[in-house]
Specification:
The structure is a homodimer.
Chain A: H1 2-8, E1 18-19, H2 21-26, E2 33-36, H3 41-52, E3 59-63, H4 68-76, E4 80-85, H5 91-95, E5 100-103, H6 106-114, E6 123-128, E7 130-131, E8 137-138, H7 146-152, E9 155-161, E10 207-213, H8 227-245, E11 256-257, H9 262-272, E12 279-282, E13 285-287, H10 288-295, E14 299-304, E15 306-308, H11 311-319, H12 321-324, E16 328-330, H13 333-336, H14 339-345, E17 348-352, E18 355-357, E19 362-363, E20 366-367, E21 371-372, H15 379-385, E22 388-392, E23 396-397, E24 402-403, E25 405-406, E26 421-424, E27 427-430, H16 436-446, H17 453-466, H18 480-488, H19 493-496
Helix pairs in contact in A: 3-4, 8-9, 9-10, 14-15, 16-17
Amino acid sequence: MPDLVSERIRCKDLRGKVTSVENAARLIQDGMSVGVCSDLLPFCRALEKEGREGRDLQIHLWSGVAILQADRILGKTGTIKRRIGQQTLLRKPINTRQVQYLDTPLGSFYPAIRAGEFGSLDVAILEAVSITKEGNLIPAYRLHDMPNFAQAAGRVIVQLNTAYPTHFEGMHDVYIPGDPPKRKSIPISCIDDRAGTPYIPLNPDKILAIYLSDEPEPIDADDSVDKTSAAIASHLLAFLRKEVAQGKLPPSLLPMEIGLGMIPTAVMKAFENAEFESLEFYSAVLNDGLLGLLSRRKVRAASGTGFFLSPRGEKHLLENLHEYHKKVVFRPVEIADCPEVIMRLGVLALNGAIEADIYGNVNSSHIMNGDIVSGVGGAVDFAMNAYLSVILLPSTAKGGNISCIVPMTSHVDIPEHGVDLLVTEQGVADLRGLVPKERADKIIRLCAHPDYRPILREYFQRALKEAGGHEPQLPDEALSFHSRFLKTGSMKLTGGK
Amino acid sequence: MPDLVSERIRCKDLRGKVTSVENAARLIQDGMSVGVCSDLLPFCRALEKEGREGRDLQIHLWSGVAILQADRILGKTGTIKRRIGQQTLLRKPINTRQVQYLDTPLGSFYPAIRAGEFGSLDVAILEAVSITKEGNLIPAYRLHDMPNFAQAAGRVIVQLNTAYPTHFEGMHDVYIPGDPPKRKSIPISCIDDRAGTPYIPLNPDKILAIYLSDEPEPIDADDSVDKTSAAIASHLLAFLRKEVAQGKLPPSLLPMEIGLGMIPTAVMKAFENAEFESLEFYSAVLNDGLLGLLSRRKVRAASGTGFFLSPRGEKHLLENLHEYHKKVVFRPVEIADCPEVIMRLGVLALNGAIEADIYGNVNSSHIMNGDIVSGVGGAVDFAMNAYLSVILLPSTAKGGNISCIVPMTSHVDIPEHGVDLLVTEQGVADLRGLVPKERADKIIRLCAHPDYRPILREYFQRALKEAGGHEPQLPDEALSFHSRFLKTGSMKLTGGK
């Protein structure tokens, strides 16, 4: 252990700060705002234990990325009072209102932190594979919001993760913009441009404690793909092929944004077997599928806040780190989700959704009557500023009892104007250049499930006759699909009547 | 007239293209896409006459700014088949579906034009006060989307307006970004930075015809302010004062965006009598109120696509042009509404709205059951990328029969995450850092009209009990306020029951 410490902590003064994870967790006080940038399993378990053993411990937890295990561990025991940023696995305690959740698009989250909108960040827990002579941090394959939290936090605790090699050094590009009136242009015009430092700048005086972990922290992901997702991916690629053939997109496309889940997995697998070469990714999330494309040498370069990898994916990354080192750059969430850069690069934004309405408005966060599924994340920033904003979703959910195409979404995250293309397993609706009436016709015809087309069409025709002119809706019935599902367990008429 | 021609058209080869406005209007063919960047009264009247006199003439009309008179004149006679961009006075024929309207946020309108989303632009009608030796155009006080249309259009017709002096030369900064993958950073870090040319670059071969006009074209605006608007402005300024006192905003604030109408007029008048000095504006619209502030020397600099002025305002501008010349810069709409620049400058976005819901979602374009009022314009780009996004609206409309605070808006243009501050004549709800439940409580308490507070609170309390957890809505009742108004003429319960 002492060898590891001196090898990994090049700043001698900091070596004395090494302590146990239990001691580190004890530094967290009731009521503190704590920033966590990845799962940090040993720390979360220790913190959870503190709470379980009777200490009053309710914190405000900040994270701009989905910290799946951390939310799950701390969410169970009531340690999180308020959660700020992006979440996916904390939905239960949020929807029972044990946890107050402040959702925010990531493009404006970090400027809001600097402006003090959420109060001050007491402590940030950061992960590093090594610490430089000056006390700066070299992270592993998750940069996420560590640079912002290192800047914002009063004090810092470091998880020095020896399960990962130190050769990640050089893959990070840490740049944080200034604030108005002194904010400058972000000097990134190409996905692999470098604008900042290869480490997280950190005033070593901020470091309260360092604990060692030798536990890798992959996520719980698999690479299964169902028929629906495969069909969605296939429609998307056929569309992209057509755009390239018509000269509307370059043969190697434009930098792509993609997330996590079965549909993204299907899309990446479809690219594995497709003719596209020299692909580029400018995404918050880098997923297992990217590794598949990297290993097939189909990727020119990729930029993201970090990898979200299955155990198998993590193993593959570590084994091929030398080769991928020069192709992947990790950026702070603030840059990975920055509207300015997204628009400049001309990103093809590939986002999922819970539901879309007949006019193209998209709900990516809430279901039915207001339960949250996940935060809005970068979806709205990407969609509004993309060169081509694509929404990928199945036409139905819950065994066909939910139509993901509805008259009116029960919540709007991406307004109709931020959606160029809607893709379901039924087909593709290219909405560019269309007025609402034309969009509705196309979405119902090409994207809705055949079981729901008649009742959607009936609604739309009646709205055209009885309601307003430009984008007609019947206030008494616009949310009737949702209402029917809540009452009968199905959006189908036969379920309800 | 010949003297005027040689004085104003410095490019000799172009002088032979001078013709009558009637001849110019005859160049427009049925089915053409025509770009119009301001009212161009002589041309619109001539075109309308063409249609009225029996020629088949239905065009696609493009404009990214509200061309009030042009829409009114051409909308009446069915000359417009399809309208693309921003509109306000074409709502009647749009809502009766005589005109197909394609609404689009202005930040992405021009990249979409270059990508060919709307097909090709056959002819653009541009206004100039003079033409340079090289054939480039010097506009008056409306630059608007002329640079983009000059670039996109196959052919160009010029309205040479001799009612305006030529000294506008030097006030325009014409910069059009490239497209991905070659788009670069927009070199504007301060509202009066200059990035482009002081004229509209134009290949003179594109010019089909030039006609002369000696008719000024102010808009139909007045400076009246009612009690409600004055109260809204007063609440806003009190809030800004508090922010300055707390060190959250600089004493001269940050660059402001503001629109047209009674509330913006009230805000500008409030600034006339306030202590703020060296104000800056980065806005699409520059209004009469800005002249009031300029004349009181309260403005350091202002940037906009052009002035929208009453006859009195126009007279004042022309009389003081020499003084204001150095303080005002006109930019293309694409730059004035550009998310990149808005975020960099840290704009205080002051936008109006039709209604907001209890969680802060904002509808700025549609009423009740789908009739459009105006296009979304720059509102969503400004709101999503502003340093502080403020929505200003009265708490009621239609003599109190409409509550502008509703359980759920009937359309969403600006999702809740793009709204920092909601201001009505009742008060200010500062929504920063709040979760949905807290936002609802504050909006109902501070912004809703007392007549509607009890039924909004009753809805919210019941939704908390009966509906989903994070942002609860009752699908059967979320749009019940709208439904009640449509049935009874009032959102009040007493009107309906």
